[in-house]
Design brief:
α8 packs across α9 (134-149). 66% of the residues lie in helices and 6% in strands. The chain has 229 residues and is mainly alpha-helical. The protein has two domains: 1-40, no CATH class; 41-204, no CATH class. The protein has helices at residues 2-6, 8-11, 23-32, 42-67, 71-76, 81-85, 88-99, 122-132, 134-149, 155-172, 175-186, 188-192, 202-217, 224-227; strands spanning 16-19, 37-40, 103-105, 116-117. A two-stranded parallel ribbon has the order 1-2. It is globular, with a radius of gyration of 22 Å.
Length: 229
């Protein structure tokens, strides 16, 4: 393991470590290095929220609206996953890129392919979805509260903010949001530790994604030694 590789003496100088929500990582540090504070960063909290709450609620709402006969509202949720899981700042930036005429894929006269440019109107569509659906508006509110909570530098204040989010999730009585409330409650110590130790696994995740991309581009590298050349 990493702890055994670097040695306990080296680990004695570590105060905190950022991990994902995998309980194995947390248990390993608590068992072998109990002095280290485990921190659950913003990236992994939001990833869980987007993948297991927003995405699932979007599908459930499409199904509900279809059953109720509101086909127009159900249709508006099609191909909306990216918009619903993105921040307003990201959508605004994409709209600005569209206004600047950003080209996503170049055209080809040889193959008769037209260039693909970014389309604008993503932020407007996002706000339209929020205004049409109360549950989606609640998701947007929770996302903003999470962002604000992770900017706090006092653990007590952050715990109050997270508990407010938990209460908001419970008030909806939605099974996906109830699951998220339990996730926050069960990991609240590691979450609020971010106020004292504002660290993240962002760089590591970025490197991992780059490695995955290179592997796909190379159609897989069976030899790790050759890959890292």
């Amino acid at each position: 393991s990493f702890i055994e590789h670097v040695g306990k003496e080296w680990m004695e100088g570590v105060e905190a470590v950022a991990t994902d929500m995998n309980s194995d990582f947390q248990e390993a540090f608590e068992e072998k290095c109990p002095h280290i504070q485990v921190v659950f960063d913003y990236f992994h909290i939001v990833k869980n929220f987007n993948d297991k709450v927003v995405s699932e609620i979007r599908k459930a709402e499409m199904k509900r609206l279809t059953i109720e006969g509101d086909l127009e509202a159900a249709k508006s949720l099609r191909r909306s996953k990216y918009i619903l899981t993105s921040s307003k700042q990201t959508l605004a930036r994409k709209d600005q890129e569209a206004q600047n005429g950003k080209v996503l894929r170049k055209g080809s006269t040889l193959f008769g392919r037209e260039p693909v440019v970014r389309r604008e109107g993503q932020l407007a569509r996002y706000e339209q979805l929020m205004s049409q659906n109360k549950l989606l508006f609640t998701l947007d509110l929770i996302k903003e509260k999470l962002c604000d909570a992770y900017k706090l530098t006092d653990e007590s204040s952050m715990e109050i903010a997270i508990n407010e989010i938990i209460d908001l999730c419970c008030e909806t009585d939605n099974k996906h949001l109830l699951w998220f409330s339990r996730l926050l409650r069960n990991h609240i110590k590691g979450i609020t530790a971010h106020a004292t130790y504002p660290i993240s696994t962002g760089k590591v995740e970025g490197i991992n994604n780059k490695i995955k991309t290179l592997r796909r581009q190379g159609y897989g590298y069976p030899d790790d030694d050759y890959f890292f050349l």
